[in-house]
Amino acid sequence: MTPRTCILIGAPVDSGKRRMGCLMGPDAYRTAGLEQALSDLGHKVIDLGNLSPAAHEPDSPDGPLFAPNQTIGWTNRLIRTAEEAMTRGLPVFLGGDHSLSLGSVVGVTNFAARQERPQFVLWLDAHTDFHTPATTDSGNLHGTPVGYFTGRPDFTGFPEVSHPIPQENVCMIGLRSVDHAERKALEDTHIHRHDMREIDEQGIARPLAAFLDKVAEANGMLHVSLDVDFLDPAIAPAVGTTVPGGATMREAHLVMEMLHDSGLMTSLDLVELNPFLDERGRTAHLMVDLCASALGRRVFDRPTRSFR
């Protein structure tokens, strides 16, 4: 295994939805031993600490969207931070709710464009997050990042997406909660999408392997966005958007192991961890274990952990 330089970027974003708690996520990952886990694998780890949003206008409590200006501030900050971090190594964005991907994905894509390489995104999530500010019923912007970085309209006030990611360069795995507006919009796209019924019938390795082959063939850069709710809530309860029937422990580790074997991952989000909803840190520890698998921990290397 070739050692990497892993850049830990705390993004305590809590403006993408109304249920508070994700701002504690970055420090929960640190407490769960993320830096040590990656260092033990031989990687160099640089922790940039926790970011704060760029300057932004105050939000009104009466608007149709929840905290749009704060989310714009976070997006501006994360775009700039992601572009810079890509020059130093493999950034790992510690969230924070999924609206952080509005900035992280656009930032790494700007870097890829300068390298004249295509950007690909693997979206591991129960939800498609393909809304726009004009289509969301909830007003929660954590449901919009895929719409944003693929160039959908109506993101007024957000930074311009100079390099929209082609739809065929996005793969969603783990879907099991897609509302009508998103379903209708997705039917007209070339986004690769795989719900849990397909995973039950065919396994999780087949669609992932096919997508990784596309990335390798194109000499692409691969951003992986891992939402806690990709996992079944029985093993990962610390998320405010629980949907039964998610990925099992072994399915999730298999995805991460395949990512490591491919050598294609160039950036990573760990999002939607709400430690307030956790049980003795079990979700934070699991997410750290999955990150370690993506960066080279083998089955025989895994420690036994007691929560007593």
Structure overview:
The protein is α/β, with parallel strands linked by helices. Helix content is 34%, strand content 16%. It has ten helices and eight strands. It is globular.
Q: In angstroms, what is the radius of gyration?
A: 18 Å
Describe the main β-sheet briefly. Answer: 8 strands, parallel
Listing every helix as H and every strand as E from the N terminus to the C terminus, the arrangement reads EHHEHEHEHEHEHHEHEH
Number of strands: 8
At the fourth level of CATH, the homologous superfamily is: Ureohydrolase domain
Helical proportion, percent range: 25-40%
CATH topology description = Arginase, Chain A
Question: What's the topology here?
Answer:
Elements: E1 5-11, H1 25-31, H2 34-40, E2 44-50, H3 68-86, E3 90-95, H4 101-114, E4 119-124, H5 145-149, E5 170-175, H6 180-186, E6 192-195, H7 196-202, H8 205-217, E7 221-227, H9 249-262, E8 265-271, H10 282-294
Parallel strand pairs: 1-2, 1-3, 3-8, 4-5, 4-7, 5-6, 7-8
Helix pairs in contact: 3-4, 8-9, 9-10
Q: What key phrases describe this protein's structure?
A:
308 residues, 8-stranded parallel beta sheet, 10 helices, 16% strand, globular
Give a brief rundown of this model:
This protein is an alpha/beta fold and 308 residues long.
